[in-house]
Design goal:
By secondary structure, the protein is an alpha/beta fold. Helix content is 34%, strand content 22%. It is globular, with a radius of gyration of 30 Å. The structure holds zinc ion (2 copies). One zinc ion binds at residues 451, 453-454, 456, 491, 493-494, 496, 498.
Length: 743
């Protein structure tokens, strides 16, 4: 490699410009594309990433880089190429993309390795020394005796714990020069305390075996293989296929990334991977949002150095700096949490497909309910479709029963939280000592506090939503901005004592169920009850061992959990997602019902699912009921085509927001006029309209929706138009390409 004279860098702070610096001789050997450097910038210094190495530069007043941060280049050339693609596709500056690509802790290089004190005998310690010491200092002798038995250095803390002796005793031994204390860098291992029992390959059924063969073929010839969509019903054994194809990739000297939604990244999931590859120490790295900065640093280096060969993680693990990448798996590819809701607003599944193309590796997207986009890609031949239609061990698909809440209301005047049919089904399970899951995608006790006299609801002062009443904290709370308020005694608007609670969330379901079944052990699992990290594991453990009869929860319990003794699932209100102003509302409802229903009957007894709804004949509910993915897909696809929505057209959503309603509106309208001038007729441009969620965190919001097929071109035109339009200082415009959040 030639030594570079100059480098082109981007500075971490968003300035949207690439700058040239010269490379001092002392650094020339070590600086390359992807290196992290410290450079003088204006009158300070700043951190930057090297984008290119140059022989010459025409820039004026070039200054030298000050230092190299870290050793080897932090990102590879192919990751840099991926970053550039993301910037162009997602209409977003490169330095913003870099922020996602390189974790904060690596970019800043402030957190290092953890240092730990190790104990080692200095010379061979004989019994005489110990006996001599015993007379004067018995505790030191006891400790020395333990140290004499060590065959390798041991962490001091561990030794002292084991012997129940103190640090002072240890220091005394060191002072006598009998032992040596040495600081060494050690890795923080978030899974150090866990024991994994090695597992071996399970036998595959015919469908699974065929799928594995196809994936193995793709591994062998990735440059001609298409992305694979693995469509397998819940319980069809997709994970086993993942595990065996990773094994193949490893045997061929390749590495693998497995993306799972954050919510499914449970200890149970990690364990399945760690235990399968247990014989290869340290081969699995796990990346998720609960890691400490230090743990993140260590896991990243474990991957970057090549020691870890399998990475499991949520969204951002798609950027894991593995070399010789052979396989990327995106499990639950339809999950909307793969979409990042802040800049860069990327979708990890789509980034995975592009990374696979750049790195020439195989990519497998798995789901029981594929997204419309992916399934469309499969039916049109862009992707290869592999189907698993059978549950492993011939388990039956659960029986879905629809409960019409309109009729329940006719009977009872108000619709009960639990219909009679669902209550009876729960009672029957309690009798048989089987378990029940009740699902409601809404937290809190009552979802609003209304005045029955004047009709006013208690709304959040910062957002246009009603405040939710939480009984455990006896306060009203906003789920969007976190604002809380005391519960007023009288209506603050008309001063009448006429306040009523309306709507209900998981907290109320829990209390109703406990009341109806006083002998049952009921637990709730949602963001409110699971604030402690340990609470989650504990609840799952208790549910697994049968200490909990009924588990009430939000989507936290909808995904991936596998409990053989759950034979009943109740969906308290299937309509919640259906009525959102979002073209994906039907798709989400279908997916959610299918996924939640999949939690029932994972053991020997067939499962039963009760779906409570006010719209029993809506297509999403009917197709889910009959486990009819193809029928649902056809119907939904026709609707999308009629309305020019994805997968037929790409969408871009621009949100213009400000504390001043008038200024936000005016800016949005001006932007629409400018876009009209620069966009061709091939693109559909909507008017500036108030967002469905008009006010959020004190900001008024306006939406502009654009659609078109040539997304790269549309993205570029939007960026150019925005760059030329000076917005008032208190107005912000954000661009979301392929948006999932339309509120
Ligand atoms: Zn009132
Ligand atoms: Zn709010």
């Amino acid at each position: 490699m030639m030594k570079p004279n100059y480098v082109r860098v981007i500075i971490d702070r968003a300035i949207q410009r690439e700058l040239d610096y010269s490379v001092p001789d002392t650094l020339a050997d070590r600086v390359g594309i992807g290196s992290r450097v410290r450079v003088p910038f204006r009158d300070k210094s700043a951190l930057a990433t090297v984008l290119a190495t140059l022989e010459q530069s025409d820039a004026k007043g070039i200054r030298p880089i000050e230092a190299l941060v870290g050793e080897a280049p932090a990102i590879s050339e192919s990751l840099l190429e991926l970053a550039k693609w993301m910037g162009a596709y997602y209409c977003c500056p490169l330095e913003t993309v870099m922020r996602s690509l390189l974790p904060q802790v690596i970019r800043r290089a402030e957190v290092g390795w953890k240092k730990q004190l190790f104990v080692q005998p200095l010379t061979k310690i004989d019994t005489d020394t110990i006996d001599n010491l015993r007379k004067r200092a018995p505790r030191q002798a006891e400790l020395l005796e333990a140290i004499a038995k060590l065959d390798k250095p041991m962490p001091a803390a561990q030794l002292l714990r084991k012997t129940s002796l103190d640090n002072q005793t240890l220091r005394a031994l060191a002072k006598r020069e009998l032992i040596e204390l040495r600081e060494e860098a050690v890795e923080r291992d978030p899974h150090a305390d866990e024991q994994f029992i090695a597992t071996t390959n399970l036998e595959l059924n015919a469908e699974q075996a065929l799928a594995l063969t196809k994936i193995t073929d793709a591994l062998a010839a990735p440059e001609i293989a298409k992305p694979i969509l693995l469509h397998g019903v819940t319980g069809s054994g997709k994970t086993e296929i993942y595990l065996q194809s990773i094994r193949t990739a490893l045997e061929r000297g390749k590495t693998a990334i497995v993306l799972v939604p954050e919510i499914s990244l449970t200890p149970q999931t990690v364990e399945r991977f760690k235990s399968r590859f247990d014989e290869m120490h340290d081969v699995v790295a796990v990346l998720h949002s609960h890691l400490s900065e230090g743990e993140r640093h260590d896991e990243w280096h474990k991957i970057h150095s090549g020691r870890a060969r399998i990475v499991i993680g949520a969204r951002s693990a798609v950027f894991a700096p593995l070399k010789d990448l052979g396989l990327i798996i995106v499990d639950e590819e339809h999950e909307t949490t793969y979409k990042q809701e802040e800049a860069p607003r990327y979708h990890a599944r789509d980034v995975a497909v592009v990374r696979a193309k750049i790195e020439k590796c195989a990519v497998v997207l798995g789901s029981a309910t594929p997204s419309l986009e992916s399934y469309h890609n499969a039916t049109t031949g862009k992707y290869e479709l592999l189907s698993l239609t059978q549950r492993v061990d011939d388990q039956q698909m659960p029986l879905m029963r629809i409960v019409d809440l309109r009729q329940e209301r006719r009977k009872e005047k108000i619709a009960p939280i639990l219909s009679e049919k669902l209550s009876q089904a729960i009672a029957a399970r309690l009798e048989k000592r089987e378990q029940t899951i009740l699902f409601l995608n809404r937290r809190g006790f009552s979802t609003s506090l209304l005045c029955s006299n004047c009709g006013e609801a208690r709304n959040c002062p910062n957002c246009s939503v009603a405040l939710t009443f939480h009984r455990h904290m006896a306060r009203l709370s906003c789920h969007l901005c976190g604002h809380t308020a005391a519960v007023p005694k009288k209506c603050p608007t008309c001063a009448k004592d006429a306040l009523i609670y309306a709507g209900f969330g998981t907290e109320k379901v829990e209390s109703t169920v406990s009341h109806l079944f006083p002998k049952a052990n009921v637990r709730r699992m949602d963001a409110d009850s699971m604030t402690r990290k340990e609470a989650y594991r504990e609840t799952l453990r208790n549910f697994r061992t049968g200490k909990i009869d009924i588990l009430v929860g939000t989507q936290m319990i909808a995904k991936g959990l596998h409990f053989p003794n759950v034979t009943l699932v109740g969906i308290i209100n299937a309509d919640l997602a259906l009525h959102l102003p979002d073209f994906r509302a039907g798709e989400r409802t279908f997916q959610l019902l299918t996924q939640v229903a999949g939690r029932a009957g994972r053991g020997e007894t067939a499962g039963e699912v009760f779906v409570q709804t006010y719209t029993p004949f809506s297509p999403s509910i009917q197709f889910a009921r009959h486990h009819d993915f193809a029928g649902y897909f056809q119907q939904e696809l026709e609707f999308r085509e009629r309305c020019d929505f994805p997968p037929f057209k790409h969408a871009i959503l621009i949100t213009v927001r400000s504390e001043h309603e008038g200024r936000a509106k005016l800016s949005a309208e001006t932007l629409v006029r400018r876009l009209k001038e620069s966009l061709g007729a091939e693109f559909i441009l909507g008017d500036a309209t108030p967002a469905p969620l008009e006010k959020l965190q004190g900001q008024f919001r306006f939406h502009i929706l654009l659609r078109g097929e040539a997304i790269m071109r549309l993205s570029r035109l939007v960026r150019e138009t925005l760059d030329k339009l000076p917005l008032p200082e208190d107005v912000v415009a954000t661009v979301d390409v392929d948006p999932y959040q339309l509120l």
